Amino acid sequence: MNTTGARWRRHAGSLASAAGRPTRQQWLVDSALAVGLLAVTVLLGSQGGESAAPWRALDVPGDVLTTLTVLPVAARRRAPLSVLGACCGAWIVLIAAGYWPVVGSYGPMLALYSLVAARGWAGATAGAPPLGAVWVFGGLRAPHTGTGLEAIVAQAVVVPTVLAMFGLQAYRLAQRNRQLAHLTAQLAQEQAARARHAVTTERLRIARELHDVIAHHLSVVSVQTGLASYVFDSDPATARGALQTIADASGEALEETRTLLHLLRTGADSGTDPQAPDGASPRTTSPARSGPATPAPRPVPALSRIVELVDRMGTVGVDAELTVTGRERPLAQRVELSAYRIVQEALTNTLKHAGPTRAQIALHYGTEELTGRITDHGSTTAAADAPPGGRTEIPGSGNGLIGMQERVRMLGGTVRAEPRAHGGFEVVFTLPAIPGQAEAAS
Hints:
alpha+beta; five-stranded mixed beta sheet
């Protein structure tokens, strides 16, 4: 972001310069140009030869007037129209005093070019006629040069026109440079916005994964903790079973969290994003690295592990039945992970809001889509009469349903979650049946 800011400041400086606020370097260059041009005009006036002979020789007043026709050029970028007016005014006085007009022509000509380069056609319209008029005035004031009026007028037309043409070319080039600078700055802003969006998207993905892992397992732990506490003295065997379920759920949560952290740490060079399109399995740390070997991370959850999920939910009172139809086959990892998380979240919500109940999970492998339907029967009478330790109310944040929608949206599928007419809740989703690597290769 610092690099982008510095780039933006550079472009802003370029735009400011082009818009009429010269930089310090440009001031120095124009000042040096004015001094050099003054030296040339003074030298030309003192060594003009036969061309300058009929005119008054340069003296102190002539040198002062010559200086006034040139030095304003130092401010040609700041106020080009005023500079042209000052140069032409001094040039008129120089000619009227009888000095050779040529020595005073360089400053006004450069001022006209600068005005047109800065203002375009408006500068040409405002600056060319005055310069031509002074040129004609100088020609008419010439003593016995033999130059006809036609030649003087032709010079007064051609010279400003040529200068204006060069100035217009410079103006168009400056316009293109300003547009390019603006587009470059806009591109830098868009790149920074895309980078911020990518960071936000990645944060949301991580938050979604952590929510799915932690919310499910902690819900199981919460229910089983309440059960173990309630029957700890009266039914030690049930309490021990609840504690074992707690140990299994917490251990699996740690493993899935470790897998997620492993992918985040190694994804930049050797890991695989769980949402990656190739469906590759997570990679372990390169053996070339020194240090103690790290255990291989747990595989990313997939549809094949829904059976484990169903068994685990059965230990906390959610009697779930799994039905699979269609041609069962490996799908892309991001599809299987999303389907698994949706089923997991639906069963977790059943546990949170309905307690011990029955649920059905139906998966259908279609040609183009994977369809899933998770339904529950709501709170049962047994659940309502259950002892306080066996029925723990777990508040929900609503992030689970949002996470479902985000997963489905990223894959171009659909999801619907709503209460059933005769009690209970239903989640229906469709995901594109993108084949996995093994399926695509066969």
